[in-house]
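User: Predict structure, ligand adenosine-5'-triphosphate.
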Amino acid sequence: MSMPVRPDTDATVVDIRGLWTVFQSADGEQVVHRDLQLHIDRGEVLSLVGGSGTGKTVLLRQILGLEKPTRGHVEVLGQEPGELSASGAANVGMLFQHGALFSAFSVLENIAFPLRELKLLPDELIRHAALVKLQMVGLGPQHANKSPADLSGGMIKRVALARALIMDPPLLLLDEPTAGLDPEASDSFCDLLRGLHRELGLTVVMVTHDLDTLFDLSTRIAVLADQKVIVTGAAREVIAYPHPFIHEYFLGGRGQRALEALHDKPAGQSPAQQAPAAGR
Ligand SMILES: Nc1ncnc2c1ncn2[C@@H]1O[C@H](COP(=O)(O)OP(=O)(O)OP(=O)(O)O)[C@@H](O)[C@H]1O
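Assistant: Predicted complex:
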């Protein structure tokens, strides 16, 4: 007997509908998001791009469950953000902008911290899991007992990434993942992220001001302006959208240089070069 074929409803990882974010200030109300919509499917690397103060970081925090929108609907894997999955693990891992490691903890203690907080597993198992993650981000066990103060900027990002991945979240949020890194460390961190995205089948939502990182990693770009997502699509599609912010951001000198670098890469290396996907 054949089973009825069901539509694939499992593809949605993030579903945001009718989102409003309004802050009260001494000068009155500040509307940051006005009826914003965003839909992200499994396996995407979606980058949020927008001018300063357009609410990119606030949106990441809402997906993570650290902040509630004023109005509207945010769902991550069919659940309210911040809830644990059926297995008790976190659905979302986040790499904060400056790594945000605990300075009094060793590298391994930092990576293990979220698992230890759960108070479900014995110490030896937690230590082992943290060592596996340390290796996964390209750092050897000789770094396990170091203090964050003894690490380079690139290593701090890697340790923070290992911590974000400790509970094997299917969704990873990255806030300015390459900010503060020199070009070499930045390229190497992008290589690591690209590899992990592929190997772990992660869905990634990223905020970046760095156009090289943007073009290097994104499978889709969403542009925030006028308090909403004005366009989403592959790089070519977004760049062709007529809006003053897009023109200034992508077609100024900085954007032109990053685009040229993108075109110089061998075909197949850069996901942003793939055929345009329909904006959602
Ligand atoms: N808790 C808060 N209370 C009041 N206003 C806030 C709060 N959090 C954020 N804002 C305001 O919301 C706006 C959006 O902030 P957000 O940090 O998300 O911007 P952003 O797009 O990430 O900007 P940038 O690219 O400069 O980091 C800003 O004007 C900020 O001052």
